[in-house]
Amino acid sequence: MSTDAAKPSRREQILTAAAEKFARAGFHGVGIDDIGAAVGISGPALYRHFRSKDAMLAELLTGISDRLLLGGKQRVDAAADPQGALDRLVRWQVEFALHNPALITVHMRDLDSLSDRDRRRVRESQRLYVEVWVDVLRRARPELDRPRARAAAHAVFGLINSTPFSAHLDTSAMSRLLRDMAHGAIAAI
Amino acid sequence: MSTDAAKPSRREQILTAAAEKFARAGFHGVGIDDIGAAVGISGPALYRHFRSKDAMLAELLTGISDRLLLGGKQRVDAAADPQGALDRLVRWQVEFALHNPALITVHMRDLDSLSDRDRRRVRESQRLYVEVWVDVLRRARPELDRPRARAAAHAVFGLINSTPFSAHLDTSAMSRLLRDMAHGAIAAI
DNA sequence: AGCCTATGTTAACGATGACTAACGTCCTCG
DNA sequence: CGAGGACGTTAGTCATCGTTAACATAGGCT
């Protein structure tokens, strides 16, 4: 009532449909009509809900990176020791990747279809998220310098975000496998 | 003289330029004129060397996946035992990713901008490459079933192919780090 | 009832961008 | 030397696609 609330349905519906389309064919490979068709309306009706096609992508990508960052921070804050924080970060990333394969794909692939402004915004969130990992990694293993920790974090993201490319296991088995492999990779640094 | 040989220079030059452009902006984000400009000629002159823009992408992607597959097979054949084969596969993938970050990026991102025919061709090579890994993994650790081995292979690819996203370490340090993490991840299965 | 807003629809418009045409130039080879 | 092919150039063409315009309709609020 106070600020802006109360209109979740249609926008969200469009966004998730767009995410799946983008994931499958790439941002430029999807037409405005395709997205409309996916939610039962046709073409330009989308402009009642979004200022432009780019605005959809922007909202998707900023949403993803913000959610990742926020979730990561929360898990770290809730942890007692560095090892616990690391484990929670791994679980968080695995959970996110497994539940949102389309978002992961779009996030990795279509970032540079964004306007400079939005791209900078997303990259900043990404950078902060990486720094969350770097800090935790270095607390867990003090001999690690920042550049190596950063590279390791990227590698672990790559490992976990491989989900959209495999996905032939059921969710819980996949989750277990990715967690184990991530911890194994980190332990080997 | 006999079959087709003898015209490497210009085509290759165009292909590597295109690869870099595609890696930076995505296949649809790059214009024919951009690619031309990158090699000093302008626009439609490219059609003296390629039948279409799609043909460039096709040649790039089939080239990559064929090289990966061939290289992988060779390393495995040259190895004495399963452990050795695994180590050689890891080294091969790391080496390839570190030396061809643009190719890796395009390979992961623009696959579905291909025609059905070409896409199928590339995917088949990819599948065979994965199977090379799966076989080696299962010989190295007989208790592993194929679905898990496949998922693990994809995860290791993701880990190693993260290179284009980090790259703040020098090549040899990065190579060492990725190899260690890959082996650690595999050991943790 | 009567209006206003939210939400659609279809029919243009305009830009972009891949591709082709028509035309030059040099290098090679008979 | 002179013809032909390899390689470029610039100026169209044509399709696609994002976006806007003009026009409906349905539901809530006064």
Descriptive overview:
The structure is a homodimer of 189-residue chains. The first copy, chain A, has eight helices and no strands. In chain A, helix 4 packs across helix 8. The first copy, chain A, has 189 residues and is mainly alpha-helical. The termini of chain A are far apart. The first copy, chain A, has helices spanning 9-25, 32-38, 53-77, 82-99, 101-109, 116-140, 146-160, 171-187. In chain A, 38% of the residues are buried. Residues 1-7 of chain A have low confidence and may be disordered. Chain A binds a DNA duplex (30 and 30 nucleotides) through residues 10, 31-33, 41-45, 47-49, 52-53.
Which spans of chain A of ≥5 residues are poorly predicted at pLDDT below 50?
1-7
Biggest sheet layout of chain A:
none
Strand content of chain A: under 5%
Q: What level of helicity do the residues of chain A show?
A: over 70%
Task: Compute the separation of the termini of chain A in Å.
Answer: 51 Å
SSE ordering of chain A: HHHHHHHH
Number of DSSP helical runs of chain A: 8
> What is the overall shape of chain A?
elongated
Give average pLDDT of chain A, whole number: 94
Rg for CA atoms of chain A: 18 Å
Summing up helix and strand content along with how strands pair, one would put the structural category of chain A as mainly alpha
